[in-house]
Amino acid sequence: MKGIVFTEFLDLVEDKFGIEMVDRIIEQSELQSGGAYTSVGTYDFSEMLKLLKNLSSNTGIAIDDLLLVYAEHFFSVLEKSYPLFFEMYSDPIEMLASIENHIHVEVIKIYPDAELPTFELVEKTDDSLIMIYKSSRAMHHFGLGLMNKTFQHFNTTASIVLEKIKNDGTEVKFIINKN
After folding, report:
1. Across-strand partners of 132?
2. Is the pLDDT reported for residue 110 higher than 80?
3. Per the UniProt record, which residue ranges are transmembrane (predicted)?
4. How far is CA 95 from CA 7, 20, 66, 145, 173, in A?
5. Average pLDDT over every residue of 81-87
6. Domain ranges, residue 51
7. Over the stretch 54-68, which tens digit does the pLDDT of each residue have?
8. Looking at the domain assignment, is residue 73 inside a domain?
9. What distance, in Å, lies between the first and last C-alpha atoms of the chain?
10. Average pLDDT along the chain
11. 169 with 138: CB under 8 angstroms?
12. At CB < 8 A and 24+ separation, what contacts does 9-16 make?
């Protein structure tokens, strides 16, 4: 997993819970990296799981809820870092429908060894979208949070239903209907 995911996560933890919490979850997680991340480095996904689990146990906030909040934070980082990218789209459905064939292609150009989930487009209309998320990492709530922020970015709303296809969350159906 790319280091930017770790560095931004720890920045969010510091902003929301303080530097002491960052130190606590790093220490509790017994990370191979020692919790020293660079945004361009690559780190084992198990370290993110440990950090999330320890943050959850220290705050009483469910991991899925933490991932939603983190996605909101990460989306704002993307908006600031890549504003031209967002200007390419005028509609959230179009942007989300382009995840696999455009957005992830651009991400790979920046981070060639990034391990990204796949989003299979099942059905698309002007106001709706059905996609299947597949990943060895069950971070579908992070994806859900990014989708929510995409609609906010375009000053519109949607109902997004998440249906687990596999109980472990490695395959999930997103049913999206723009309001």
Report:
1. 120, 173
2. no
3. none
4. 26, 38, 24, 15, 17
5. 85
6. 3-61
7. 999 999 999 999 999
8. no
9. 34
10. 93
11. yes
12. 9/48, 9/51, 9/70, 10/35, 10/37, 10/51, 11/73, 12/69, 12/70, 12/73, 13/55, 15/73, 16/69
